[in-house]
Amino acid sequence: MSAITNHMPTAELQALDAAHHMHPFTTNDALETRGARVITRAEGVYLTDSEGNSILDGMAGLWCMNIGYGRKEMAEVAARQMMELPYYNTFFMTTHVPAIALSQEIAKLTPGDLNHVFFASSGSEANDTNIRMVRTYWAEKGHPGKSHIISRKNAYHGSSVGSGSLGGMSFMHAQGGLPIPGIHHINQPDWWGEGGEMSPQDFGIARARELENKILELGEDKVAAFIAEPVQGAGGVIVPPDSYWPEIQRICDAYDILLIADEVICGFGRTGTWFGSETMGVRPHIMTIAKGLSSGYQPIGGSVVCDEVAEVIGATEFNHGYTYSGHPVAAAVAMENLRILQEEKIVDRVGSIGAPALKAGLEQLVDHPLVGGLSIKGMMASLPLTPHKESRAKFAAEPGTVGYICRERCFANNLVMRHVGDRMIVSPPLVIEPEDIDVLVARARRALDETYTELKRQDLL
Ligand code: PMP
């Protein structure tokens, strides 16, 4: 066995990493020339890298570290569960206590009659389940032709063939023959980027009506479901105008199509209530969950399904399942995460303290010459960068060039912020304290100032 440890020189770790480790969404060239940042430890909202830097994690990992790093209870629960029952499956009429307990707890927390959970290990897997589930539902009800699914451009629903097809990212569709047949994408409700001269409210209605038009174009008897994130995350934290979701709900009700809310980011407190569907006032038939379900301490996700759909699906055998569906260690750790979220009132605290503090902090950045506005819901936010605030203009450079420069300046200032195109994204652990939000804002301002200088230097402004 090789003895690769945190104590090795960073350059050596980077070279080995570039030689053998294939990274998601990364080029070999970047790995070889610059080397990946090696993260060695984390505590609370701070990461430590192999050079000893203390980095504020303004992204909660990949939007998942809701309770913050370093909670010992989570490790203890995992160790206990591994000693008692490290693995067993839930196929062929077997079950175990962690899966029973977690599904009951999720059913209690989710709204309405979302009372049934089909487990997966990730959001991608759960969305693949959803594709097969909604098509099977309508087939079992005698409507096999009701199989088309409508999603949105620039949505993110995962990276597997099915979930990547549901997603609306053209650069992902360009690789590997996506989307699969029967998936359609309407425009997103991105008023800042695409609203032009329309008022946000009119724009929200117009974009929602695209769903109605698509249903009419395909035929009501052909459409199984509409899927959307309550607030688009990876697409750039796009908070829809208030008029959008009520109109979407009306259309789903009117045409008898299933509504799937992808709560992988919004779920478990991110928007200030337990689920983004509650914040946005929608009633889904199915919710996709992952990330905040375990705060990233274990890989686990699932589809939370309403009574009627679960009954129809369960009436025959649903020929679908994953080796790790309801994995006992992942389920026990998720259960402990839900205990911490509830007993420490972390979701309530987002509404009363975290979200208002984050909003107040980020609003201070809106006067920066590069910042075109603030899009925020709970503790997910984006700051679109622009050369001209009033007209919400785009930069002349290739989209993403400026965002990338800013992301690198954030990193250099020991702050993780992500860029989606030229929008800067913030989504910190839900437990971040107001004084750490001050640190985040101060570092972001420095990064923005340095970006401004760099843009001038490169003649990009
Ligand atoms: N849906 C949404 C809304 C997501 O943000 C993500 C991941 N960023 C996924 C699905 C896919 O989840 P996973 O990466 O766990 O497969």
Automatic annotation (TrEMBL):
Its cofactor is pyridoxal 5'-phosphate. Keywords: Aminotransferase, Pyridoxal phosphate, Transferase. InterPro entries: Aminotrans_3, Aminotrans_3_PPA_site, PyrdxlP-dep_Trfase, PyrdxlP-dep_Trfase_major, PyrdxlP-dep_Trfase_small. The keyword Transferase applies. Transmembrane segments: none annotated. GO terms for molecular function: transaminase activity. CDD domains: OAT_like. NCBIfam families: PRK07480.1 (NF005682). Belongs to the class-III pyridoxal-phosphate-dependent aminotransferase family. This is Aspartate aminotransferase family protein. It comes from Roseobacter sinensis. The lineage of its organism: Bacteria, Pseudomonadati, Pseudomonadota, Alphaproteobacteria, Rhodobacterales.
